Amino acid sequence: NVYDSYYKTIKKVDLPKDDTEYIPRITWTSDPETFAVFTLNKQQKIMRMYQINCKSQLFNLLYEEREEQWFDYKSLKHIHFLPDNKFTLLSERDGFRHLYLYNANGILNHQITNGNFDVTDVYGVDTLRNIIYYQAAKKNCLKREIYAYDLNKNKETIVQEENGWNTAVFSTDFSFYEHQYSSLNKPTSYNWFNAKNKQIRASDENAVLTEKIEKKYLKEFFSIKNETGDSLFAWIMKPKNFDPNKKYPVVVKIHGAPETQI
Fold first, then answer.
1. 119 three-class SS
2. Where are the alpha helices (DSSP H) in 158-249?
3. CA 179, 184, 185, 189: dihedral to nearest 10 degrees?
4. How far apart, in whole angstroms, are the C-alpha atoms of residue 31 and residue 55?
5. Is the distance from CB of 70 to CB of 43 less than 8 angstroms?
6. Distance CA 112, CA 13 (A)
7. 85 touches 27 (CB < 8 A)
């Protein structure tokens, strides 16, 4: 439904009934006269994005994606509309989760990222500089790096690549960001940078907690081959005074869902 605050009227948008079982997201485009509605069918294998005019309630199909198994609706939160109404989105169409840029008419402009890795998060688009920021497991599936892609120059640069897990929280205008970093035996530290990637403030690096962990525990990565020969990664935590000749009780935590390595 569309509510007109001036005339105080409500008008219904009659979307196609076929394959429109769920509406997981509604968002504004860059044009204040239009918004986008995302639909999924009952089996959650077909996702469609409709562009709708606020005044006329007329709509057109802007984008469609079909999956053999299921479409991950959570990736819809990473769709961003640019000032010229081009939009970026995440898709697993080539077997990995990658970023794509589409023109305002829904035609593919180009694939932003590609390779045997996943884009694991999208932080947003700096529309003044036309730069999109994202996180990816590009170097190793056990690590995360932060990248920036200049949509004007079609050029990717690395923002943060500490050996471990890098995440970021950006200010609304992308002039500053908080860098969060942790590794196997290092708790999260927090540091702050400006848009030119110059550090403007540093935290205490959680020195006290790091020292406590180093005194008591030691984590190690290892891998296990499954029935098909694929490597499954795991980690084990042992006490610092671990004796390989002794038996210890073990707590096992199992990977139990998609999209998580915990």
1. strand
2. 207-216
3. 10
4. 13
5. yes
6. 33
7. no
In this predicted structure, what is the pLDDT of residue 204?
66
DSSP code at position 144? B
- Nearest CA-CA partner of 88 in 71, 72, 104: 104
One-letter identity of residue 160: Q
Q: What is the pTM of this model?
A: 0.89
The two three-digit tokens of residue 83, written as one number? 């000032």
Contact by Cβ (8 Å): 35, 29: yes
Q: How far apart are CA 145 and CA 165, in angstroms?
A: 7
pLDDT in tens, 34-49: 999 999 999 999 999 9
What is the tens place of the pLDDT at every residue in 90-138? 999 999 999 999 999 999 999 999 999 999 999 999 999 999 999 999 9
Whether 154 contacts 110, CB under 8 Å: yes
Q: Are 38 and 76 in contact (CB under 8 A)?
A: yes
In terms of Cα–Cα distance, which of 142, 148, 139 is closest to 168? 148
> What tokens does 249 get?
């009780």
Cα radius of gyration rounded to whole Å, the chain = 23
